[in-house]
Design goal:
This protein is of the alpha/beta class and 431 residues long. The protein is built from twelve helices and 24 strands.
Length: 431
């Protein structure tokens, strides 16, 4: 890391994580020490508010460090086209510009970039300005470690693949280490709304901002009700002390898995939409978050390449480290991530529209259909784009399952419970 010219704060953080790895970190959080959450405050119960004063003291931070490798892309995930020729980053920019125009506030859009995403993302933001504030701050990069001996992996064919970002949990250290926290506080900013760039539901909400700014909290997490689709993901609970905590699947002992997956007991999961009081970040040490040891291969597209560990942390885990924290229940409409081609089909469909503030709005109040596209034929963006030359209407669709190689043309309308199967080796075109 020194040879690569990385600053000492990044090296110190990695050294601490490496020491925890050697000591066997990645421990469990036992079911017996947890208490299920009772009812939480709900956004729908809050009175609407404009939060004019707080809006002028707020910064929007988008986590923009990931590549779209899960969808077969080698470009920043934020640059993926999602609606009407516009990318996640285009929409985030337009939303902030709309808020500035309607409120007269100086609302900045700040990216937490990685070394993979900084150049292309800043190029995409050409012509956009945060005034005296920069457009981004940078995560560190850390070496991927060989699983057999914990040494930094060597991959001469693509040396850039020897490195990885250390997860979005580094936001707290990066805000300090890059000097951005001091810069924001000196400019009069007090609050930050933080979310993933690929969550189209994570838009600035002045009712939430008013609630948070009036609450005296240091940290608030938006949560929503778990469904069967979410049972393998992390959930929120309380420790015996009453402190909120986030438990990920990697922290769960095998005997506790049934309880972990019980969505009737552990009802809430983290949307990764967070509200931070910036003074609280300055007032306390950088949070010491649980270590996540991800097992990968050095080339994520080649399962036969060298097995490696990537040391990461999750920013939501900081809910157990701040003195004054709270979770608030929001509807599923604030959690619209694009992780798969099935998600992309849903959010590009006629079930949604972009409003005058470039925010995605559902056109019907009813439940949205469950969509499952055969991963053998729709796992990458290229596969998806080739098979959906035109998007079918989903307005009257309750669920959609596609198995096999099916291509969709113009004028297709799907209604009710739809199952399309093509067991043969040759593609089928609809209509």
């Amino acid at each position: 890391m020194r040879a690569a010219g990385l600053p000492e704060w990044q090296i110190d953080r990695f050294a601490a994580d490496f020491a925890r790895l050697e000591a066997g970190a990645g421990g469990t959080l036992a079911e017996e020490v947890l208490r299920p959450l009772e009812d939480l405050p709900r956004l729908v119960d809050l009175a609407g508010a404009e939060a004019d004063a707080a809006l002028g003291q707020t910064v929007v931070i988008k986590l923009n460090g990931g590549l779209g490798t899960s969808m077969g892309l080698e470009t920043p995930k934020g640059l993926l086209e999602v609606r009407q020729g516009r990318s996640f980053l285009d929409l985030a920019r337009s939303q902030v510009e709309a808020w500035r125009a309607s409120s007269g506030s100086r609302l900045p859009l700040l990216l937490m970039n990685s070394f993979h995403t900084r150049g292309p993302s800043l190029e995409k933001l050409a012509g956009f300005s945060n005034g005296a504030l920069p457009l981004d701050f940078l995560q560190s990069k850390v070496p991927k470690l060989r699983q057999d001996n914990l040494q930094p992996v060597e991959f001469p064919a693509h040396p850039e693949l020897e490195w990885c970002p250390p997860g979005h949990g580094e936001i707290y250290a990066a805000l300090r280490g890059e000097g951005m926290l001091d810069h924001l506080l000196a400019a009069g900013f007090r609050y930050a709304f933080v979310s993933n760039i690929d969550n189209l539901g994570a838009t600035l909400d002045t009712t939430l901002l008013d609630w948070f700014s009036q609450s005296g909290l240091d940290f608030a997490m938006e949560v929503t009700i778990r469904t069967e689709q979410d049972k393998k993901g992390g959930h929120l609970a309380r420790l015996a002390s009453g402190q909120l905590t986030l438990r990920e699947r990697s922290q769960c002992a095998p005997q506790d898995l049934p309880a972990f997956e019980n969505i009737g007991v552990h009802r809430y999961f983290n949307t990764n939409n967070l509200w931070l009081r910036l003074e609280a970040l300055r007032e306390q040490p950088v949070p010491n978050l649980p270590l996540i040891v991800n097992r990968k291969t050095v080339d994520p597209t080649d399962p036969g390449s060298t097995p490696v560990y990537q040391l990461e942390s999750a920013m939501g885990a900081a809910i157990s480290t701040f003195p004054r924290t709270q979770a608030i229940e929001v509807t599923r409409r604030r959690f619209l991530p694009v992780k798969t081609s099935s998600d992309l089909l849903l959010l590009r469909s006629d079930l949604y529209r972009l409003d005058e503030k470039s925010q995605l709005q559902a056109v019907t109040p009813g439940p949205l259909p469950n969509i499952r596209l055969d991963p053998k034929f729709y796992s990458t963006y290229a596969d998806f784009a080739r098979r959906f030359a035109s998007l079918p209407s989903l307005l009257e669709c309750r669920s959609l399952t596609v198995e096999g190689d099916v291509h969709f043309g113009a004028g297709v309308c799907l209604q009710g419970v739809v199952e399309i199967q093509n067991p043969g080796p040759d593609p089928v075109w609809l209509p």
